[in-house]
Design brief:
The chain is mainly alpha-helical. About 30% of the residues lie in helices and about 0% in strands.
Length: about 70
């Protein structure tokens, strides 16, 4: 590929609670990003997801350098 673009990965609808019972609040959004997803579809609570992602960046669990 000329630009090195290999595509994007999307989660399934996070609000469907396929794994939400194991990861409370916005934690599932962080775990989905750590797992390699690029786009989070329908997090159950967007505010909690944003806060959890910010905390994960602050604690170096997630990094802007990855992207």
């Amino acid at each position: 590929m000329i630009l090195g673009f290999n595509g994007l990965t999307f989660t399934d609808a996070l609000e469907m609670k396929g794994v939400a019972k194991y990861f409370p609040g916005g934690v599932i959004s962080v775990e989905a990003l750590i797992a390699g997803n690029d786009m989070l579809c329908l997090p159950e609570d967007v505010g909690k997801a944003i806060e959890a992602i910010k905390q994960a960046i602050d604690s170096n669990r997630l990094s802007w350098d990855r992207y």
